[in-house]
Please model this.
Amino acid sequence: MSKFLVNKYQSLEPYTPGEQPRERKYLKLNTNESPFPPSEKAIALAAKEAERLMLYSDPECKELSAKMAETLGVSAENVIMTNGSDEVLNFAFMAYCDESTPAIFPDITYGFYKVFAALNAVPYKEIPLLADFSMPLADLLSARGTLFIANPNAPSGILLPLSEIEKIVAADPARIVVVDEAYIDFGGESAVSLIAEYDNLLVTGTFSKSRSMAGARLGFGVASAALIADLHRIRYSTNPYNVNRMTAAAGIGALSDKEYFEENCKKIIEARAYLARELSALGFSMTDSKANFLFVRHERMSGEAVYGALRERGVLVRHFGAPRIKDYNRITVGSMAEMEQLVEVMKEILEETK
Model:
């Protein structure tokens, strides 16, 4: 830290992204990336658009926004395209939180929420999850402030059914509810269907997981036209060219390949079920994840020990040091072959530590 950094950022604790190793080849199951390449349509359109990189991208993202709206069954005025879903989430903190309107989110959830609150100098309140990591519905219904809910939640993967999301949104029409649906395509029902009825709902999503475009950085928000106009006001005041030409083109290609998208989601769900069965047989317990990862703990090995043993054998998973979850590891669900490899490595570890 330099001596020139202004005071308000000197105590800022940045988000810690998952490890991206380069020194050796790992079975990489730590950052919830897709094991499958992007759609060939996405690749082809991005490559074609690379020839026009001397020109700025479309600040309105007209073609991509129209395709996104068509895919979701909404109007283009209900959609904003962003540089990853992190950008639209940050916009929401900027637009709907201040000294009199705190941010509210669970104590165990996506780690960036706390960072966005600190970055934007807004107060926040963490609502403790229940002992089984499920959401405390009564507390969410009564919370006062702008509410951020990851659904399915991370790192637990636990899903709130759409009926409960609607109860939360309807409980207080005077507050904004942001539903972060980064993992919704792996077993949940999206809250996008509610935006026509509730003007206090913002749903965010990403192309990073189910559409195999983590490296492209593409996200979106869906809400009433008025809320989307708010977010565009902030976008045009920060970075109007936030989605580059190649990413926008790739996004259109990905949305045009519904069959590939659905087939990959199906494969992930099948691999998740396989991994859950196999790990349970090895003495692991886990939450009921509806995401592209499992959140697991072993009956006789600490979370840190499991993480370290896997890493030594070339398998990366995500370990968190927070007291309530230090015994757990989050394991990305990859291809079936990758899950079979993980299981064999885990069997070796457990045999050696008897």
